[in-house]
UniProtKB/TrEMBL annotation:
Organism for this UniProt entry: Arctium lappa (Greater burdock)
Name of the molecule in the record: Uncharacterized protein
Amino acid sequence: MVQLVWVLVACMMYTAMGSTRISLVSTSIFDVTKYGAKGNGKTDDSPAFMKAWKAACEAPSNVRRSILLIPARRTFLLRPISFNGPCKPSSIYVQVSGNIIGPTKKTDWIGSHIDTWLEFTRVNGLTVSGNGRIDGQGPIWWENACIGTPTPGTTCHAPAALMFKRCNGLRLNGLTHINSPRVHVTITACNGVIISNLRIIAPETSPNTDGINIASSTNVKIRDSIIGTGDDCVAISGGSSNIMISSIVCGPGHGISIGALGNGGADVVENIEVRNCTMIKTLAGVRIKSWQGGSGYARKISFKGIKFDSVYNPIMIDQYYCPTQTNCRTSTSAVKISDVTFSGIMGTSRMDNVINISCSRSVACTNIVLDSVYISSATPGRKVFGTCINAHGRATHVKPSFNCLKR
Ligand SMILES: *[C@@H]1O[C@H](CO)[C@@H](O)[C@H](O)[C@H]1NC(C)=O
Ligand SMILES: *[C@@H]1O[C@H](CO)[C@@H](O)[C@H](O)[C@H]1NC(C)=O
């Protein structure tokens, strides 16, 4: 709406200035229903979306901004679909006012690339915004992620719901994402991203339904969002730097995680700030996890102003990550962790070990700082404690008392 008003104002200004060049109007609207989308929740609207996208993306050169409009009060059924760039207009605005749902039968996926449901690639200046709802129809995948019977010895993973790949200057705002088959929103190889005001909802028991994953991306801000799923609320993986996560309410879920890093190779992560976040009954709070083996580093990471409500593992560095707990790799190489600050943190825990800094026995963590950290048991009167392995740094104003950091 704001956008449309802006266009009108711009038109009026041109008129006021006595401009005769009406063609200067540089925004075009591409309504998916004008391209044949039905929005009845039953008809496959992907071909219509593809046509509208092509028109928006290949708009004539006087169009600086294309708006792909997904109108309100309708539900559009989409099969797996890729919205590919590069596009001609310098900005593409996807207005999601209506709802989008995924195929309700796995067989609708036969012949499709199974990794992702809705994918945007190489679209610079992309904004996806609106108060629509994106429903991935996750329950059909959660029990068995394969289509049909899996070949013996193979595993399948369910598709990610919404993926942005190589989209610089991305904005994602206002949407509700529910029941993804796997991760809800993935940002990969993007630079300059702002994600805000999302609601991401899936059951606590749904497997691998991370809220937002960030991989190989730089200059990413995620703020003012509510995330409650069956896995990490936000996960930041290798190749990511200058990431700011703020004002997130997380739970249920597995908290906000950096990693798992070092799964076969070098991983680099730096300049990460997580601030003003609340974790409610999550399995982990804030953590950095890495597999044994691997190389690279995770450094300049700070967690500030975090509140915990009955969290299981509030503060964790875990360099022994091995989710299956079987055939775990053991190795003397490790991702080097340094310059990590936990400050202004308070709340309650369901477990007694509330601070667990477990660094590699061969590669120490250095400059680990805890300041003003107060965590008590969710059970009144119960004692809590912290532990560490091979960690250097300092702790000031910490409860429970935390004396295991080496100088
Ligand atoms: C902190 O986060 C909460 C949501 O949990 C939000 O309401 C509040 O405005 C945020 N405060 C600041 C200073 O950003
Ligand atoms: C701390 O974390 C490590 C690594 O996950 C784990 O092996 C250990 O049992 C934990 N310590 C406690 C006391 O819970």
